[in-house]
């Protein structure tokens, strides 16, 4: 049975409709599922944490390949469906909770698998908080394979200092090596969203690519810079009243070798790292 037919059958059986408040759109495209599974490169001794399994479209494929799959699903309507669909799998575990409130580090440590991978189809409205939680919690995971809105994906995997970047771009590149897996048209879902999606993969690095004494201060600096992205880096930092006088900030920016008229998105991660060490 194709994923489309299977999805329609489940929706009819349980009288389910997509919850707009949760940003739900049900994946119905076989090629997209195959692409996600292939990219995740799942082995029998892997622990998989799936965030937002929904009806279990990807879950079924994960369970066939992984040592164990832990699904974290907020929508209580999906719990009955998931439990019934996968009742016969002894490697299936379901948590009905907001992932932002789950202690993922403890969860992973308790399972004692040598390799953990995360797979997620994230609602557009909460993509950034979830990804930041996965990175800032410094989880012992190998990869994060996630489907997000295309516009967001473009910003996440951009090279810092080039292209259309945001503050989260720097966090992504600090903690991981990101790359695009596949592009997903809006027709791959029911109901079809207004925008297309992209599956990206974040390969978590054992050590960040730049060294700083205080990560929190680094990302605070970057966040403040991007709060006034249309201004120059100098003016954005001076307006924050956190880093001294404008003249003092000018001196620090010049010490790093940056043009005083440079904008926040044109500064590389390495340059932000050198700057935060000088103005701390």
Polypeptide structure, described:
- The structure is a single chain.
- The chain is α/β, with parallel strands linked by helices and 280 residues long.
- It folds into 2 domains: 3-204, Vaccinia Virus protein VP39 (Rossmann fold, 3-Layer(aba) Sandwich); 215-279, rRNA adenine dimethylase, C-terminal domain (Helicase, Ruva Protein, domain 3), CATH 1.10.8.100.
- It contains 12 helices and 9 strands.
- The chain has helices at residues 3-14, 30-40, 59-65, 76-85, 104-111, 127-136, 150-156, 167-175, 215-227, 233-239, 246-256, 269-279; strands at 26-27, 46-51, 68-72, 92-95, 115-121, 143-149, 176-184, 189-190, 197-204.
- The strands form 2 sheets. Strands 4-3-2-5-6-9-7 form a 7-stranded mixed beta sheet.
- Helix 3 (59-65) links the parallel strand 2 and strand 3.
- Helix 8 packs antiparallel against helix 9, helix 10 packs antiparallel against helix 11 (246-256) and helix 11 (246-256) crosses helix 12.
- The radius of gyration is 21 Å and the shape is elongated.
- The termini are far apart.
- The mean pLDDT is 94.
Helix and strand layout, with pairings?
Layout: H1 3-14, E1 26-27, H2 30-40, E2 46-51, H3 59-65, E3 68-72, H4 76-85, E4 92-95, H5 104-111, E5 115-121, H6 127-136, E6 143-149, H7 150-156, H8 167-175, E7 176-184, E8 189-190, E9 197-204, H9 215-227, H10 233-239, H11 246-256, H12 269-279
Parallel strand pairs: 2-3, 2-5, 3-4, 5-6
Antiparallel strand pairs: 1-8, 6-9, 7-9
Helix pairs in contact: 8-9, 10-11, 11-12
Please state the CA-atom Rg, rounded to the nearest Å.
21 Å
* Number of helices, counting only DSSP H or I runs of 4 residues or more: 12
CA(first)-CA(last) distance: 60 Å
CATH homologous superfamily placement of the largest domain: Vaccinia Virus protein VP39
Q: How do the strands line up in the largest sheet?
A: 4-3-2-5-6-9-7
| Oligomeric state as shown | single chain
Give the total of beta strands: 9
**What share of the residues does DSSP label as strand, in percent?**
15-25%
Which fold name corresponds to the CATH topology of the largest domain?
A: Rossmann fold
| CATH architecture descriptor text of the largest domain | 3-Layer(aba) Sandwich
Inertia-based shape: elongated
Which structural class is indicated by helix and strand composition? Answer: alpha/beta
Q: Can you tell me the CATH class of the largest domain?
A: Alpha Beta
- Give start-end ranges of low-pLDDT stretches: none
């Amino acid at each position: 049975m194709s994923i489309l037919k299977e999805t329609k059958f489940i929706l009819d059986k349980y009288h389910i409709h997509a919850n707009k408040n949760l940003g739900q759109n049900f994946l119905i495209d076989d090629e997209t599922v195959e692409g996600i599974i292939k990219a995740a490169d799942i082995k029998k001794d892997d622990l998989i944490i799936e965030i937002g399994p929904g009806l279990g479209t990807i879950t079924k494929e994960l369970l066939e390949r992984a040592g164990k799959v832990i699904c974290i699903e907020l929508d209580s309507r999906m719990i009955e469906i998931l439990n019934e669909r996968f009742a016969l799998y002894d490697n299936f575990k379901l948590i009905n909770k907001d992932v932002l409130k789950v202690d993922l580090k403890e969860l992973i440590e308790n399972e004692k698998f040598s390799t953990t991978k995360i797979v997620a189809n994230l609602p557009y409205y909460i993509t950034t908080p979830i990804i930041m939680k996965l990175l800032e919690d410094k989880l012992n995971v190998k990869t994060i394979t996630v489907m997000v809105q295309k516009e967001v994906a473009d910003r996440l995997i951009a090279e810092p200092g080039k292209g259309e970047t945001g503050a989260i771009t720097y966090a992504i590149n600090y903690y991981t090596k990101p790359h695009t897996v596949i592009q997903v048209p809006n027709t791959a879902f029911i109901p079809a969203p207004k925008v297309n999606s992209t599956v990206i993969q974040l390969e978590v690095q054992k050590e960040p690519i730049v060294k700083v004494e205080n990560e929190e201060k680094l990302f605070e600096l970057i966040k403040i810079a991007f709060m006034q992205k249309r201004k120059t880096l100098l003016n954005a930092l001076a307006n924050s009243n956190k880093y001294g006088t404008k003249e003092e900030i000018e001196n620090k920016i010049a010490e790093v070798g940056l043009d005083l008229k440079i904008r926040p998105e044109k500064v590389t991660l390495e340059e932000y790292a050198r700057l935060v060490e000088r103005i701390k």
